[in-house]
């Protein structure tokens, strides 16, 4: 399960650009909470607290428990507007989470047992194709990460999405193929040796032909 973070927010009385600009001048970021067949609620978040959370990474795939006027709302960030120059947050949309709701999220991929991969021990390189995988998941069962075990993998082996045990109810949004998550590629030194061996193999028949011609 993904970690749930607690965040205190304040109710915002007015909507509109003027109210949003005033909030930002006071060091607050305007936001809205919507969904679950309830009326939207306008709130503000302290800018420094939001930036600290953003610096941890994975903001849009983390669940939050917003404390609004003493009440708690379980939510998932769905959109965030950033300043085009400074990349500072300007506005956040939060979706209320309720049982039975299905959401689409980017789930990070974590790799372990690198030291138990023969291919990596031989100098192979872990080529990560997807650092995150988009999944359709139950809103209350969002996984924190997908774990990939590299034990026993050789050079040339690949990890497909079908090789990962997904939590119940979680399905990839890419459903038409068994896509690759990562592969162990040969190191450049190994490729050079193979290329050199191939060239020597090709040259051998030519040498035999020359010898036969000289005998004739």
What can you see in these coordinates?
With 216 residues, this protein is α+β, with helices and mostly antiparallel strands. The chain has four helices and 13 strands. It has helices spanning 17-25, 47-54, 118-121, 188-215, and strands at 4-11, 28-35, 38-46, 63-68, 71-82, 89-96, 102-112, 125-128, 132-138, 146-149, 158-160, 171-172, 180-185. A six-stranded mixed beta barrel has the order 1-3-2-6-5-4. It has a four-stranded mixed β-sheet with strand order 10-7-9-12, with no helix packed on it. β5 and β6 (89-96) form a beta hairpin. The radius of gyration is 27 Å and the shape is elongated.
Shape field: elongated
Structural class by sheet pairing and helices: alpha+beta
Low-confidence stretches: none
Report the span from N to C terminus: 78 Å
Order of strands side by side in the largest beta sheet? 1-3-2-6-5-4
How much of the residues is beta strand, in percent?
35-45%
What percent of the residues sit in helical stretches (DSSP H or I)? 10-25%
Largest sheet: 6 strands, mixed, barrel
Count of alpha and pi helical runs: 4
Rg, please? 27 Å
Number of strands: 13
Order of helices and strands: EHEEHEEEEHEEEEEEH
Q: Round the mean pLDDT to the nearest integer and report it.
A: 86
């Amino acid at each position: 399960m993904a970690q749930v973070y607690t965040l205190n927010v304040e109710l915002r009385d007015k909507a509109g650009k003027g109210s949003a600009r005033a909030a930002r001048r006071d060091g607050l970021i305007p936001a809205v909470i919507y969904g679950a067949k309830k009326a939207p609620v306008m709130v503000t978040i302290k800018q420094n607290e939001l930036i600290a959370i953003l610096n941890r990474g994975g903001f849009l795939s983390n669940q939050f428990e917003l404390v609004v006027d003493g009440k708690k709302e379980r939510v998932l960030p769905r959109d965030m507007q950033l300043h085009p120059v400074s990349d500072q947050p300007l506005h956040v949309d939060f979706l209320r989470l309720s049982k039975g709701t299905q959401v689409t999220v980017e789930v990070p991929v974590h790799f372990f047992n690198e030291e138990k991969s023969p291919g990596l021990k031989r100098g192979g390189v872990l080529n990560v194709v997807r650092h995150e995988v988009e999944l359709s998941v139950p809103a209350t069962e969002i996984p924190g990460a997908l774990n990939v075990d590299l034990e026993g993998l050789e050079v040339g082996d690949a990890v497909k999405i079908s090789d990962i045990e997904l939590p119940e109810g979680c399905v990839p949004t890419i459903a038409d193929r068994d896509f690759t998550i990562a592969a162990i590629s040969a190191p450049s030194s190994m490729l050079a040796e193979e290329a050199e061996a191939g060239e020597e193999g090709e040259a051998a028949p030519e040498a035999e032909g020359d010898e036969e011609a000289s005998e004739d």
